[in-house]
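README, section 4: Worked example with a bound small molecule

Sections 1 through 3 covered apo chains. Here we extend the same pipeline to holo records, where the ligand is supplied as SMILES alongside the sequence. The molecule in this example is magnesium ion. Nothing else about the input changes; the structure line simply encodes the ligand pose together with the chain.
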Amino acid sequence: MRAFGTRGPVDPEKHYVVQRSDEIADFINRVKDGRYIVIFAPRQTGKTTFFHQVIDALAVEEPTYFIIQLNFENREDLSEKDFYSTLCNDLCEEIKKTFQKHGNIPCEALIHFLKNAQISNNVSMRNFYTRFEKFLTNQKLVIFIDKFHGIPQAIENGFLASLRSIYNSRYKQCPHSVVFESLESFIQRDPLSAVSPFNIQDHYGLPNFTVEQVQKLLGQYTDEVGQAFAPEVPEAVYKHTNGQPLLVNQFARVLTQELDIPKNVVIRMEHFLEVQMKV
Ligand SMILES: Nc1ncnc2c1ncn2[C@@H]1O[C@H](COP(=O)(O)OP(=O)(O)OP(=O)(O)O)[C@@H](O)[C@H]1O
Ligand SMILES: [Mg+2]
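The generated complex, written as structure tokens:
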């Protein structure tokens, strides 16, 4: 039986999950369009889950896309040299993994390239992408970076400036699209910087759940377990939490697990009011 997830990204095999189909379709169009996009939203609002949903949907819709995932968590204190050498390792590992996922074996030349690749600054990072692009046949590189805000501050501008120059180049751009997950929009953080990535970034503020999404999420539990909610309960959960994803799940979890309401009893407003005192 699945459960309401309240720790980290949710997984449809283990948790009830809001599919966010409209948002995913809109987002995928931006990726196909070759945009460099920042998903920003406060903590625990479903950014990483959304990332995974977009990656899964994109892999099905565009099987030739070469998708890699990076995560900059806890890199704040790295020197430029260490940051870029870690990035180089991550890129090479992800490239190998993606080849495996596609059921392909990298050619000798690519194996040699990956073995000897070095990145030490933003310029060599750009060179890395230029050289790697030559190994992609009819494929488009798309990079997803989770927790972009973990990049060392001193490096951020140079890193973004390089991506901006790739984006602005007249040639086929590689990476085709970059998705940054961040706690804040870069505009909010860096309004006056000379290398502000204004002209490359597309902002995507991930919204809270709508009342319909809360209804559907709770409905998944009813479908699976057979225990119904009185119609006013999902609405009350939505109003009380403002659709904030983690709070919705915490509320649902207490209602369905911790209150020990017998499964043949409909969950009603009196139960909601009891939980409201706790969450
Ligand atoms: N699509 C979804 N369906 C159901 N619940 C979700 C969904 N997305 C997020 N949640 C809820 O939000 C919580 C946090 O999800 P996630 O880790 O994806 O958010 P985040 O914004 O990446 O968090 P952080 O800021 O810590 O990186 C989950 O544990 C779950 O309670
Ligand atoms: Mg996250």
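What to look for in the output: Residues 80-101 form the longest helix (22 residues). Confidence is low (pLDDT under 50) at residues 190-198.

Section 5 describes how to batch many such records.
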